[in-house]
Write a structure and sequence with these properties.
The protein is mostly helical. It has one domain. Helices cover about 80% and strands about 0% of the residues. The chain has helices at about 5-50, 50-65. The longest helix is centred in the middle third of the chain and has 45 residues, at about 5-50.
């Protein structure tokens, strides 16, 4: 059987967990919005800069994001 202090601790932890889950959900929604905006900006940039140099810069940027900057750049 749980004593009163343990029960209070459990209830407090449940409340904290609920708050954290709510905050996490809000942040995930915000992240989704930011990703959508980022995609829109990239698409507009691509449309306005539709040339080989832009495409090469984007490929380089994506490569660097996925693999880190090349070791010859510091």
């Amino acid at each position: 059987m749980l004593d009163a202090d343990t029960k209070r601790d459990i209830e407090e932890l449940k409340r904290q967990l609920s708050v954290l889950e709510s905050q996490e959900e809000d942040l995930m929604k915000e992240l989704e919005i930011l990703r959508a905006r980022k995609t829109e900006v990239k698409e507009k940039l691509r449309d306005l800069s539709n040339d080989d140099k832009y495409q090469q810069e984007m490929l380089t940027m994506v490569y660097q994001q996925r693999h880190g900057k090349p070791s010859n750049e510091k």
